[in-house]
Amino acid sequence: MIQGDVSKVLKPPSLFLRRLKSANVYGFRFVQLLRSSRRSRRFTPSQEPNMILTAIDYAIIGAYFAITIGIGFWFRNRASKDIAEYFVSGRSLPWWIAGTSMVATTFAADTPLAVTGLTIQHGLAGNWVWWSFALGGMITVFVYAKLWRRSGVMTDVELVELRYSGKSAALLRGSRAIYVALIVNPIIIGWVTSAMFMVLDETVLFELPASTLEQTVFGDNALSVRPWLIIAGTLMMVGVYGTLSGMWGVAVADALQFCLAMFGCIALAWLAIAHFGGASQLEAKVIENFGEGGTAAFDLIPDFTGANAWLPLHVFLLLLLVQWWATWYPGAEPGGGGFIVQRMAACKDERHSLLATLWFQIAHYCVRPWPWLVVALAALAMYPELRQSELADPAFNSGVGFPRVMRDLSPPGLRGLLTVTFFAAFMSTLSTQMNWGASYLVRDVYQRFMRPDATEKQLNRASRYASLIVLAAGGVASVLMFGQSVDAAWRLLLALGAGTGAVFMLRWFWWRINAWSEIVSMFGSLLFFLTVEPIALASGLVSADGGGPILGPEVKMFSVAVMTIALWVIVTWLTPPVDDATLDRFFQMVRPGGPFWKPVAERNPNVKVDTDIGLSILTALSATGIVYAVLPGIGNLIFGHYQAAALCGGIAAILTAIVAVLVKRLTRVDSHS
């Protein structure tokens, strides 16, 4: 029963797939979806004011869209120079723009809703599903960022043919580029679009009657069509400024969008606290509505053994110690990858690359969460029926609480700003996914396999076409994924990538890994993912709904990871190693340290390799400690627990001083390499 409760935090992939089928994805009829989309998801609120936009709201929204399009035109000529300008800003981004662009991309329309759902289900501790990635992120900062920057790649899959050789490397590079660009990317666009649809439906379009023109054109479907038209218009706008401006425009727009989004969320959190007359009153109401053991809503470390325990200790340890390295997930790739690598490649140098990823991790875990968490707690306090519905039905999406707080509390002026907040979050993610996906199609498919001799003009034109292809694929996925929960999609990608993370990290430090190691890990992960659950069901380890006393979704992830790692290690030893020339070239360029490059290092005695791996890992651990001290520190400060806040602040200050000293030592060591 306890494990079944945990599965409500992360819906099992099997449940997600069954819900996809029940949504008629495979026999999709668009008109039926439009007719049912609005009323079927309506949840009767405690109060029903319309979030009607005024002239000042429309002015704010109009100014935002005008500035965004203006950025696209401003950087148009620069993006037209070559594909290095288009995809990696000519490798000239300063760290603060690159890092802010990273965090803006992960601040999508879906994220505040997902955080709200997790908090309503299990209190603040429910967010360990994503807080647990902090250590992996810090290791990327201090261990892998400099390696990626030295490699000189434009995309992370370009590393494949730099690190490996032969037809297997070419096969891996091309297939993974297509997989990420045209499967993973559209899935991400699909779920953030679904979240944006919910935000529109519950705020500015809530109970807003159709105009005469809309009724004339769309008839009974007028109300249901309206959000799709708005989203389609947004997609086209992203297509315009994203294809015009390339990475410089995307990154600068991201920085603006992040600032707007944070300002809007902070303003909403302040209003939520004021609505209850103060943080202590909000805290009391949350405790009252959370039910038995109400104070558990504010526990950052859950009770593992009490009567109301929902998270077993072994599952918590799997999240904290295994998930970050065992699974591949966009934005939290073990060792770095995806759009994170693209931003690192766009930085001026190694130092800017490190600072950009460090700022991303700090902003991601320390700056962004608490405005979302305060609004999530306010939703729990204002709408207790959300938690009751979530407990009664795991398929219920309590993330709807965030836009409902927006609708019920925001005054004129702030309504426009909050609308811009979600458009900014939505568009920053779309523009990155579009540019990132296009970089694979152009650099790793078109230029590598179709037109190796293509001119810069041809590549630039292909880049714009590829951007539109990725955006169009995302639009199709948005329709197919309509109505699916965000955390279910998160869980699907996490489980599918279980076991692949280890090979992505170790390929930098073990010469024996080859292209077949990665290929087998990808297909092995999928195979084990599909077979573990049926075997567990047949053996009685889990129930039909994916829960069970022994094998839950986190244990399943761990099981898939262990089997996948065992498989690719065996295949690594059974297949030929990478040829000496390729290994030597990679070793000379990247200069990785550690004992597992010994045969290559003996052939290249003049290469000054990194000697600071242990120091880098110690720095990453200390920086992770900062995150885990700042998170409760800010919360205690908000809710008036000043002694606890001071203790957390003191720990964070000590760890910050330690990290500063360690970073100086790392910089000194690197300068001597």
From TrEMBL:
GO MF annotation list: D-glucose:sodium symporter activity
InterPro entries named among the record's database cross-references: Na/Glc_symporter_sf, Na/solute_symporter
A Pfam family reported for this protein in Swiss-Prot or TrEMBL: SSF
Cellular localization per UniProt: Membrane
Gene Ontology annotations for the cellular component aspect, listed alphabetically: plasma membrane
Transmembrane segments: 51-75, 95-116, 128-145, 177-200, 228-251, 258-276, 309-332, 353-383, 416-442, 462-482, 488-510, 522-543, 555-575, 613-631, 643-663
Gene3D superfamilies from the UniProt entry: Sodium/glucose cotransporter
Keywords: Membrane, Transmembrane, Transmembrane helix
PANTHER family with a match to the protein in the record: SODIUM_GLUCOSE COTRANSPORT PROTEIN, SOLUTE CARRIER FAMILY 5
Protein name: Sodium/glucose cotransporter
Organism field: Rosistilla oblonga
